[in-house]
Amino acid sequence: MSRKLRVATTSLAGCFGCHMSLLDIDERLFPLLDLIEFDRSPLTDIKHCGPCDIGIIEGGICNAENVHVLREFRKNCKILIAIGACAVTGGLPAQRNHLDLGSCLTEVYLTEPGLAHGHIPNDPELPLPLDKVHPLHEVVKIDYFIPGCPPPGDAIWKFLTDLIAGKTPELGHGLIKYD
Amino acid sequence: MSELETAAHPENLRRVAIDPVSRVEGHGKVTLLLDENDRVHQVRLHIVEFRGFEKFIQGRPYWEAPVMVQRLCGICPVSHHIAASKAMDMIVGAALTPTAEKVRRLMHYGQILQSHALHFFHLCSPDLLFGFDSDVAKRNIAGIAAAYPEIAKQGVLLRKFGQEVIRVTAGKRIHGTGSIPGGVNKNVSAEERDYLLKDIGQIIDWSRAAVGIARRLFEQNLEFYNKFGTFKAHTLNLVRADGALDLYHGGLRARDLSGNTLFDHYDYSHYWDVIFEDVKPWSYMKFPFLRSLGPEAGWYRVGPLSRVTQCDFIPSPLAEEQRKAFLAFDNGNAAGATLGFHWARMIEMLHAAEVIQELLFDPDLQGNDLVNIGERQERGVGVIEAPRGTLIHHYKVDEHDQIVRCNLIVSTTHNNQAMNEAIRQVARQYIDGRKLTEGLLNHIEVAIRAFDPCLSCATHALGKMPLEVELLDAAGARVDVLTR
User: Fold this and answer.
1) Residue of B228, B240, B276 whose CA lies nearest to B384
2) Span A52-61, pLDDT tens digits
3) In a 3-state reduction of DSSP, which class is residue B134?
């Protein structure tokens, strides 16, 4: 048996639903763990992506930190996959793109009734929000896109097992979803 | 202000960050400020993402809310799906048919089961079974699968069963469409019922075993588990009219840290009379508090630990037996401990399995009367007990059926100050004055994980709470209304 493929995953401006769909492969997780090992992922405590065979990213880009993490993944992953509607198109969070960010922040943190002490969070520890939410391919080269909100567990399983077997991944009818 | 929240002289201190907080849902980081003697001066949990659901949903037709807003969170989309639907039930003036309410309950308890299983087995069991400072390379679900294959298998299959309950009731496992304003869009067929029934006995057995795992953790390391990150807090949760645990519907119950009742069976459609929010410059997540106690003293804790300890009883026999054992254990010390969250969560998972079984035997699930409609209202509030705690959805809809206002207070936001207190307590207990190691820093994360935070849910805030003043005459009829 050759070495295990190393896989990093992260969620940027996403909801973790694509990661949940990855876990929806259910008990097939165990044979998958015979073939791969996780690097940085919400499932491990590895905080930075190291050299990997496959990177899987859900969510779009909504702040400066997302850009740094995405670039770190691109630099370290031989194959980078945008998974789910948000990574592919910006998804639902991109619905804020027609709104002015500054006035949104003012509304939420300053003028909303029901606030004890209104002020806009501005600590240097908070990454700067971008004025628009972007899909991943606007920032780095992406090798594969898997659509769906989220893509079903069966689609992720088919995609990964094809890729691990050295084949061109093919989902085909029934596994490509757009909702 | 809480001790350790803000250092007096941050300029001379060393910054250490845990970034990102891992094995939790969503995006957060912790920063510590330490002096040259490794004494801790400041500890903060930051929520670093800012989204915009409450804002961009404005202008959308109200029936889109249950399917849009659930995309706040992929772990507990059903929570938002159902809370939004309950608010929209008020908008369309509907009282639910028995079939609609029971199908929704089945969906919700399916989600409680899957979410609690995911949290305990996939995310937290590596800390609990290997130790908080164990080898980082193995401290994950793959390590558990190698060392404890039977436990890992049960965790994966418990989650799978909950996800299948959701698929049957909502149409798909994540971001389904089953719940709609005024009801549901499908029932549960006899075939679907039989498909779920064939496994439910096994699921209940495994859930009981999981409660046993949580209990043994305390038995094996009693003093450490009792005191790890533990502090006293006020509590907030829904209870049924008879005081029972009910995760789908009820009135609000708040108790102070001595156990005195602040309010009980409070009608949640006026939640803003009892809950306010504070803002701090270092987090996008707000800090809710009980209005009567004020922003400094009024923060509270929600979720399984509050619910299981503050309800009068659990209305299912196996879980009720476990609740009593939990409360009695070591004179109630486990029930007051931060790590007691895990034990309480497993008791709720067992309860969810029992409720699912009971519902599956109910012929109303096969009913065909799915949707009700009544007199159209302009304001709707939906509150449920989500896996992580009390979840509030509030909408105002105009005469064109468009949402014009939306306010969401999600479970994890309620726990914001409580999580900060927990990590400050851990910093005092285990970090202060010691040489920092990866394992010690993981202690901070263990305390955060106990709350099962959904930091993705909690980054939604961007919107405006509606403020409405109504002038009523002596008979209660509305004379005038002022809206801001």
Assistant:
1) B240
2) 999 999 999 9
3) coil
Predicted local confidence at residue B25, as pLDDT? 84
In a domain, A179, yes or no: no
Instruction: Let me know: does A85 contact B244? Beta carbons within 8 Å.
Output: no
Ramachandran class of B420: left when φ > 0, alpha when ψ lies in -120 to 50, beta otherwise: alpha
CB contact under 8 A, A99 and B279: no
Residue A175 lies in a domain: no
- Residues near A73 by beta carbon (within 8 Å), at least 6 away in sequence: A8, A10, A49, A55, A57, A80, A140
Residues of A in contact with B461 (CB under 8 A): 108
Q: What is the pLDDT of residues B55-67, one digit of tens each?
A: 889 999 999 999 9
- Per-residue pLDDT at B201: 98
CATH code assigned at A51: 3.40.50.700
- CA separation, residue A169 to residues A19, A175, B95 (Å): 19, 12, 49
Q: In whole angstroms, what separates CA A21 from the centre of its chain?
A: 12
Q: Do B442 and A45 touch (CB under 8 A)?
A: yes
Q: What is the CATH number of domain B53-416+461-470?
A: 1.10.645.10
Residues forming a β-bridge with A82: A57, A145
Task: Indicate yes or no: CB of B136 within 8 angstroms of CB of A45.
Answer: yes
Average pLDDT over residues B73-83: 95
CB atoms within 10 A of CB B351: 28
Q: Residue B359: is its pLDDT beyond 50?
A: yes
Is pLDDT at B475 greater than 90 in this prediction?
no
Nearest by CB to A44, from B22, B286, B289: name it: B22
Domain that holds residue A12: 5-96+130-164
The burial class, CB within 10 Å (0-12 / 13-18 / 19+), for B480 is: exposed
Q: Which of B360, B352, B459 is nearest to B113 (CA)?
A: B352
Total domains in chain A come to 1
